[in-house]
Amino acid sequence: xxxxxxLLKYKKQIILQGPPGTGKTREAKFIAAEMLGIDDVDxxxxxxxxxxxxxxxxYTYEDFVRGIVAESRGDRIEYKNVNKTLGLFAEEAxxxxxxxxxxxxxxxIEFWMDSNFEDFKYEIEKEIEENxxxxxxxxxxxxxxxxxxxYGKNWDNPSRINFIDFKNLVKAIIENxxxxxxxxxxxxxxxxxxxxxxxYNALLKIFFEKYNYQGExxxxxxxxxxxxxxxxxxxxxxxxxxxxxxxxxxxxKAVESMYNVDGNELILPPNLYIIGTMxxxxxxxxxxxxxxxxxxxFVNVHPKNLKVTQGLEGFDDILFNxxxxxxxxxxxxxxxxxxxxxxxxxxxxxxKDIDGAxxxxxxxxxxxxxxxxxxxxxxxxxxxxxxxxEALTPSI
Length: 396
Hints:
Elements: H1 2-11, E1 13-18, H2 24-36, E2 50-54, H3 61-64, E3 66-73, E4 76-83, H4 85-101, H5 105-130, E5 133-136, E6 139-144, E7 148-153, E8 156-162, H6 163-174, H7 191-194, H8 197-210, E9 225-230, H9 237-241, H10 244-249, E10 255-256, E11 265-266, E12 272-279, H11 290-293, E13 297-300, H12 306-309, H13 317-329, H14 337-340, H15 359-376, H16 385-390
Parallel strand pairs: 1-12, 1-13, 2-9, 9-12
Antiparallel strand pairs: 3-4, 5-6, 6-7, 7-8, 10-11
Helix pairs in contact: 5-6
């Protein structure tokens, strides 16, 4: 496993490939746990620096990176661009990368801003639930959304205070680029705020009554972020990744997205690692083209006799070897044994597990059905192949 970890650190993205049952996803989780400093892989599920998703044939760029969602606005529908799984994960990894590598005054202000802004949004949400937040006259702040504060007379022709504009104004005020007052906000800082300065100024006043930047120095430890993509080749990768094919190779460099979310740039930082798993026996999925292949390192995960390699008592090595022999004597010349031979996980006796089953059950309802499917698909051939499969018996 150490070799795979070193490879991942170097390449940033790897694919574990092999036939079914070789423990590719399990191996990916162990690598992720090691990269994240976690002792128990079961703890990964609730860890913020870890994500696991599974691709499928209908998976798209809009599911994975960025897309459009529809939101109800009273009696009308509004469409907006949002980050999806990778977009959100990369955004958090990039924030940490910047915070841990840049100790400038500007970075300190951004870190202070990001930390306090999340608290500010929460406080505003609580205040809205309990009281009205009046911005001017009968205009109130009435909702906190994913990227803006909504204000108006409820949903009667509402407008918004954009998070990105608001945060930029806070930063500009702290840096003394303009003096905070009730006057019109200069266009150079935000055209949107320039024409809505009454409402932006009212909310800025609330913010600075709660928070006061004292020139604090912040430092954040560097963190790794690991994304596992199970069955990565089941989706059309060129379509799903889009412009990120470039970003995979040039980490830390911005690429332009077709969807604008706080700007249209996307960055995959150096502290974001991607592990894919690929079933080499699955011919129903498309191939991975050369442009994508050269951006990943491919690691073969082969079937192993666990009684020999690990001394596992609950492993049926006799049945494992008998099944392996089928791929020596009855394999079609169109296939390679390493791509289709059943993996070792099928031959582990699960009787002692909760809701587990003995090897005899696994043979009849897991192993034999796959082998017969191989016969149907022309992977295993020969006049005697069906009889050989039927004759298989467990030894434990």
